[in-house]
Amino acid sequence: GAVDGKVSRWWPLALVPVAVFLHIFGIILIPAALYVLLFRSNILSRIRRVNRRQKQAAVGVVVAASLIVYYYLSQQFLFFRFAVLPIIPDQYTVSGYTMFSSDHLLDFVNLILLLIPGLVILLVYVAGSFRSQLKGDPIIRFLSILTVSALAVAFLLDPKLGMPRDWDLFAFAGIPLSFLAYYSVINSPDINGKRLVTVYLTILLGLLTLAPRIYCQVVPSAGIAQVRNYFELDVKKSMQYIKIAQDYCLENGDSDNYRELSDFYNKNYPEKKLNSQGKSLLDSKRYVEAISYFDQAIAINPRLVGAFFNKGLCLIYSGRYVEAAEILEIAVGLNPNNAKMHGHLALAQMRANRLEGAVKNALSAYALDNNDMLPISLLVQIYKSTGRQDEYEKFMMIGAKNPQAPPQLLAELTALYIQKREFGLARQTLNEAISKGLDSSTTTQLSSRIR
Questions:
Q1: Contact between residue 230 and residue 238 where contact means Cβ atoms under 8 Å apart
Q2: pLDDT per residue over 4-39, tens digit each?
Q3: Are residues 376 and 408 in contact, defined by beta-carbon separation less than 8 angstroms?
Q4: What is the pLDDT of residues 397-448, one digit of tens each?
Q5: 394-400, long-range: CB < 8 A, 24+ apart
Q6: Contact (Cβ atoms closer than 8 angstroms) between residue 372 and residue 362
Q7: Interatomic CA distance for residues 156 and 165, integer angstroms
Q8: pLDDT digits (tens, 9 = 90+) for 221-250
């Protein structure tokens, strides 16, 4: 509609922010939306008149700028660093899996063929006509831009659980590619009446390749065999997934497979045992010994988030707050949706006097779990010490409503109510603090101030 003038060219661009708001992958639409906006404009006409050498130079500049942005983001933001595959191995690379490693390239090709099993047939059919279609059909150009954007994002992102299990997360890349392939075939010359045969053949091939997946979903033994094959193909990235399979076997009384999966787990993940041993030492307050175990676990698996978190706790309890903050930043980068990790990072940052970061992470922890008292207590302390009275009072009230509120916080709120001459609320809050074990001297002091 937009490229042939049936609707305003601004509509696709206006819908992009909505798509991005609904999901971050909406950014894939931006290049294609810009093409629609610039279609038949003076800018696009000028670009077409640029000679090949200048276009190549422009592409080189874009590639160089992209690499600079990639490097900057990976150095400044650990979340980005762990979300996107590294170009070359770094300290967090597992099993040599990088952007251009053979494993990733094969995974990516396998993903595309999994999403569109008949793609090779479609490509062979349109091989002779696609170039002319690209020059003459704006819809082909639009779909091509959208396809390149989607495939680029899928190629750059790190499949955390391994591509065979994360294929559904990356399935978005197959949608524009499917549209482009089938649209190209349907609009290409009918070679000896084989155009519809090609379309029907690829649809049939897709149904045939879907059948084994359906079978594995409905036959438990086949499903277990499939996931066990995944484990063996990609051991390191199967660590979390194998626990789900174990729980499934346990819940369904499949003791044989549960035992075999447990043996596989114990044999292939020594880092988990080291982390568990370190955790026992941490609980016993033997922090130096515990750290050595966590370091050994991290050396085996540099993305074992639990080992980073536990090491961070050891460093906090040892008073090494700057080091703790650095380690816990890695843990948060690996698991950005964990309230506990954000909260303890905020604690380390506050004690290291990095208050801006402490507030940011405490607020993140509170947003993820508003029942956790740690971020609330930290925000109360920071806002009080920095003179941000409104925020201080806000989180004091929030903390007082929490069932886990400690008596000291309630006593502090009581003093605040007394200062405001709100004696009824002060008496009520003090009684709650007393019921939670407030010490007698503080109780006597506050009671004497309530009229």
A1: yes
A2: 666 666 777 778 888 888 888 888 988 888 888 887
A3: no
A4: 999 999 999 999 999 999 999 999 999 999 999 999 999 999 999 999 999 8
A5: 398/370, 399/373, 400/429, 400/432
A6: no
A7: 17
A8: 888 888 888 888 888 788 877 888 888 888
99 contacts 156 by C-beta, under 8 angstroms: yes
The encoded tokens of residue 187 equal: 């609009």
Q: Is 11:4 a contact under the CB 8 Å cutoff?
A: no
How far, in Å, CA of 374 to CA of 380, rounded? Answer: 10
| Alpha-carbon span 229 to 87, nearest angstrom | 28
Partner residues linked to 157 by β-bridges: 84
User: 253-287 in b/e burial notation, b at 16+ Cβ within 10 A?
Assistant: ebeebbeebeebbeebbebbebbebbbebbeeeeb
Nearest to 115 by CA among 28, 173, 160: 173
Whether 307 and 294 have beta carbons less than 8 Å apart is answered as yes
Contact 177, 184 (CB under 8 A): no
Element (H, E) at 308: helix 305-317
Cα torsion 214, 219, 220, 225: sign: negative
Residue written as token pair 């059919």: 125
Q: What is the pLDDT of residue 254?
A: 87
In 286-366 the beta strands, taken as DSSP E runs, fall at none
User: CA angle, 155 as apex, 39 and 122 as ends, to 5°?
Assistant: 65
Q: Can you tell me the distance from the alpha carbon of 22 to that of 25, in angstroms, rounded to the nearest whole number?
A: 9
Helix (H, G, I), strand (E, B) or coil at 9: coil
DSSP 237: G
Q: Taking residues 116-142, report their average pLDDT.
A: 90
Q: Is 147 helix (H, G, I), strand (E, B) or coil?
A: helix
Q: How crowded is residue 131: how many other Cβ atoms within 10 Å of its Cβ? A: 10
The label of the residue with tokens 């490097």 reads: 71
Dist. CA 22–CA 172, nearest whole Å: 14
